[in-house]
Amino acid sequence: MKKYVHGYSDIEANRLNDQADSLAELIHHDSIWKEGSLVLEAGCGVGAQTKTVASKNKNCRFISIDISADSICQAKKVIESKGIKNVEFMEADIFDLPFEDEYFDHILVCFVLEHLPNPYVAMDKLKSKLKVNGTITLIEGDHGSTYFHPDSLAARRAIQCQVELQKRNGGDANIGRKLYPILAESAFKEIKVSARQVYVDDSNPGWVEGFTKNTFTEMIKGVAEEAIKKGLIDRETIEKGISDLYKTAEGGGTFCYTFFKGIGVK
Ligand SMILES: C[S@@+](CC[C@H](N)C(=O)[O-])C[C@H]1O[C@@H](n2cnc3c(N)ncnc32)[C@H](O)[C@@H]1O
User: Fold this and answer.
1) β-sheet bridge partners, residue 260
2) What is the pTM of this model?
3) Residue nearest atom 14 in ligand 1 by C-alpha distance
4) Is residue 2 part of a domain?
5) Which of 145, 94, 98, 153 is nearest to 123 (CA)?
6) Is residue 144 part of a domain?
7) CATH number, position 32
8) Range of 134's domain?
């Protein structure tokens, strides 16, 4: 089964976990909901964000859903292994949510809208399940925010392949900058969007490994064969691009990327 551009391999599951672990503080330091809240996590994947938000909000109850049964299975194992008790997992589709209207106090959607051909329809579906005065939290990246040293045309071309492949799948790898208009057009109130920048150099070896190498470069590596097959780039260029991305994680290299977190009230 392949329902989104990165697929559902073990490598991708590890990448999602590395991404979540290295970004936990940056994106979730303020993911705190009122005690007693019922929170829908839509598109939970392998539970990489679930473990962070559920542990931070021990007195909230989470229902975490994903369209992939395999991912739900993996997510359950992760949460059980950590002894987390406040999460219920379900295989479900954002476009056909099996809940009554106005059921949830809050909704979290992390790295999911970027893969959907119709994020506005998804927002309507999600909004209908949210109580009045409940909040939705959207977290997305934006590949247009990527820059690094040493700069490399091949690396930039490799990244562009990912953007193009995601677009051909109906998604948008540059969606981060659109969170404000998406929330506004979906008629949410009190919208607040914040840019969360990852800046990586040698002084932060955790991010060098967890973000530059294991999250970002791994993601570009993951689409290389498909990009070549679809004629977007030749093998030599994408391999050079990937090797140049690794150079940004070596002594003296730097890497910058910006995530966006948007919150709106129904
Ligand atoms: C990039 S992963 C992100 C997973 C997780 N939120 C995280 O940050 O690690 C995107 C997830 O969205 C799920 N997804 C895509 N379309 C969906 C839909 N219509 N309903 C539910 N989940 C969906 C995919 O199966 C995948 O697990």
Assistant:
1) 140, 195
2) 0.93
3) 43
4) no
5) 94
6) yes
7) 3.40.50.150
8) 10-265
pLDDT tens for 26-71 read 999 999 999 999 999 999 999 999 999 999 999 999 999 999 999 9
Task: Answer whether residue 61 is part of any domain.
Answer: yes
CA distance 68 to 230: 25
**Is residue 51 in contact with ligand 1, taking CB distance under 6 Å?**
no
The Cα 14–Cα 33 span in angstroms is 27
Report the alpha-carbon distance of residue 173 to residue 163 in Å, rounded: 5
- Total domains in the chain come to 1
Contact 241, 154 (CB under 8 A): yes
Residue 5 resides in a domain: no
Please give the C-alpha separations between residue 226 and each of 9, 120, 162, in angstroms, as whole numbers: 15, 28, 10
Ligand 1 within 6 A of 119 CB? no
| CA-based R_g, the chain, Å | 18
CB 221 within 8 A of CB 18: no
pLDDT in tens, 181-233: 999 999 999 999 999 999 999 999 999 999 999 999 999 999 999 999 999 99
Q: Within 13 Å of residue 108, how many CA atoms lie on the same side as its CB?
A: 27
